[in-house]
Amino acid sequence: MQVSMEKTAGAPQAKTGAPHMKITKLSEHIGAEVTGIDLRQPVDAATRKQLYDALVENITLVVRNQDFTPEQYVAAVSLFGELMPDESEKNRLPEQPLIGLINSRAIDREGKRVMTGERWHSDHVNQPQPPKFTCLYAVKLPDKGGATNIANTRAGFATLPADLKKRIEGMKTVNVIIGSASKSVNADRRAWQAEAAPPPVIHPLVRTHPDAGTKALYFHPNKVENIVGMSPEDSQVLLEDLTERALKPEYVYSHQWRPGDMLIWDNRSAFHRASFDYDPAQHRLLYRTLVKGDTPR
Ligand SMILES: [Fe+2]
Fold first, then answer.
1. Sign of torsion, CA 78 198 178 128?
2. How far lies 14's CA from each of 21, 44, 66, 260, in Å?
3. Rounded mean pLDDT of the chain?
4. I need a labelling partner for 252 at 20 to 30 A (CA). Which of 31, 157, 159, 292 fits?
């Protein structure tokens, strides 16, 4: 499903139930900003479809000027589909377990700062049905820095040389909580993998978007144990090479947070990573929600 921006942005707005809603593209390859809507208010089916289609087309949406309680936030993200909890119980907000915490003050069992999401990745790919959308809502922000960066992996895949595309298209990743050769130093995840040792989950390295029909790179380098037929070490080298070649600066939207921002992206067409360029003495706290997806193909 490809929705033209003219259709998305220019539909007769009086019929949407959100007469002041405006969707504006942020760049040629990725991102759109949504203004003039308060997602605490009821949203009709036409507006909901307009938002969903704009998200699939633009890969990420920034909805400005929201003011949510945890319950209101969960209700707003539910406009995009059914939510699923963070796989780590430790990360969940106690009073609303569908909200996961991205907390700059989190430390692991060794007392080290947890640098969650510092590498380009897609979320929860060790699940058989990983989330199709990830959404963040800013609760506490540093004075500067701490952007969330989103990259268009369908443009990234399309830009690769034809022989490389052909080589990787049939590849499968074997996904766990944390890959033995991955660069992650998160001691909690290493311990969790060693203790729980859940059965690995296999996914395509290149997935086809179920709505749009487009192909995109699809992996989380920290969660890949190996690519089928390759060693864990060689797999990491290939994933790093693909990331470097594919994620050109023009395919990246770097979201500089403002209070009231809700940022949502399509994990089926995007990688994301957090910037750790802010003063660690300042608190950065985001509420994360995940929208259920289907089996990647
Ligand atoms: Fe993530």
1. negative
2. 10, 12, 21, 25
3. 92
4. 292
The pLDDT tens digits of the residues spanning 67-81 come to 999 999 999 999 999
Domains parsed from the chain with CATH numbers? 5-152+248-291 (3.60.130.10), 160-246 (no CATH)
Cα 281 to middle of ligand 1, angstroms: 22
- Cα(290) to ligand 1 centroid in Å equals 10
CA of residue 100 to ligand 1 center, whole Å: 11
As a whole number, mean pLDDT of residues 91-119 equals 90
Residue with tokens 């507006």: 47
Task: Say what the pTM is.
Answer: 0.92
For residues 54 and 2, what is the distance between their CA atoms, to the nearest angstrom? 9
Average pLDDT on 87-107 reads: 93
Yes or no: say if 253 and 31 are a contact pair by the CB < 8 Å rule: yes
